Amino acid sequence: MLVEFNKRIEDKTADLVALTQDLVRIPTVNPPGDAYTPCAELIGTRLKSRGFQVEYIRGHDTPGDSDAFPRTNVIARREGRGPGKTVHFNSHIDVVEAGEGWTVDPYGGEIRDGKVYGRGTCDMKGGMAASIIAAEAYIEANPGFSGAIEISGTVDEESGGFGGVAYLASKGLFSKPRVDHVIIPEPLNKDRVCLGHRGVWWAQIETFGTQAHGSMPFLGDCAVRHMGSVINAFETDLYPQLANKQTDMPVVPEGAKKSTMNLNSIHGGESETGAGGKPDDYDGLPSPNVPDSCRLILDRRFLIEEDLATVKNEVVSILERLKSDRDEFDYAIKDIMEVLPTMTERDAPVVQAVSQGIRSVLGKEPEYVISPGTYDQKHIARIGHLHDCIAYGPGILDLAHMADEYVGIDDMVESAKVMCQAIHVLLTSND
Fold this sequence. Notes:
The protein is α/β, with parallel strands linked by helices and 431 residues long. It folds into 2 domains: 2-197 and 341-428, Zn peptidases (Aminopeptidase, 3-Layer(aba) Sandwich), CATH 3.40.630; 199-339, Alpha-Beta Plaits, CATH 3.30.70. It has helices at 2-11, 13-24, 36-48, 121-141, 165-170, 223-243, 308-325, 349-362, 377-382, 409-428; strands at 53-58, 72-79, 82-92, 111-112, 115-117, 146-154, 181-184, 192-197, 199-208, 260-268, 293-302, 331-339, 342-343, 367-371, 389-391, 406-408. It has a 6-stranded mixed β-sheet. A 4-stranded antiparallel β-sheet has the order 10-11-9-12, with helices on one face. The model has no long low-confidence stretch (mean pLDDT 95).
């Protein structure tokens, strides 16, 4: 049976490449959430023609959802001929903006040197295509299978997943008894099983001041300077503390085994162009004002050994100290997102099934890793309360979000073989 699975996938290589190209050529850029519906319909139409029941579910009233940019998800389900477990492959269809520095069309799906290039090839439309081909090959080779196979294309993973997996999980679509095992084809390399991810806390800090004429700043109070004192305190006090924290989780790459914090964005005072009521093509000068507000978004990634309350207090204690020591300093802080670290046990059924596939297809022992950043496993665990979930897929993690992103064709084929064998193990197991 395994030989037949592999042969069918090899015969579908051209189809696998073409499907990846078709997906990449739909620019599902997030934000704002372009072309979600046509991408979902591409997936749904294909799977419906292969006997799947297809449902489109909009993430109503989730961040970013509107009639102009509907958060359209697709779930396809193929029932077997008898009762059994359900294996679900979940991929996000959104991609980040292309950015600069490309030597190929980021939405062209160009093939060069055995690789498919384009935004989202690695993260993670190549993985989605591989999972679809794997499921189709399994059904063709074993039409009498018991259980069910599901494939979903969901939105907004790049911005937290709230209109996608979080919304669907809240509707019970990632919970037992509907679903038993979940594989998310994120690009963690074809010989790795990703057990989970670090935790994340996003927050906005705002410092306050008093507006005055820029030529007489002594009559006002500069909120940007206050924020500068915050950043300086982070540099001298907090970052050294984070560098000394180390996890026993198998996080990759090596630098992510420590606690980290990124300052995602900062803005203070009057907007220079394209905001604050100005037209997008405005290129004039701002007026000379002392800024009375400055806002900073922080992105704190923490370890399974850390407590979220302590993570937050490390920042708040610095702000409180500045409020006590610095004249006129005042601030506000609000949570944007918080997710606890998650790590599936190595003896979990889905881990064992994918590991068996890696040994069989690649002839080597799998590496077990933890992702430095979160992905939609977080919602499946915390909302769906389903913990037999991992990430496994083709692609090199370091290429995600970069110019000239690509996925190797051979990597997709081999990953599809691993996925197909994992389906067989999970649907025929007595666990």
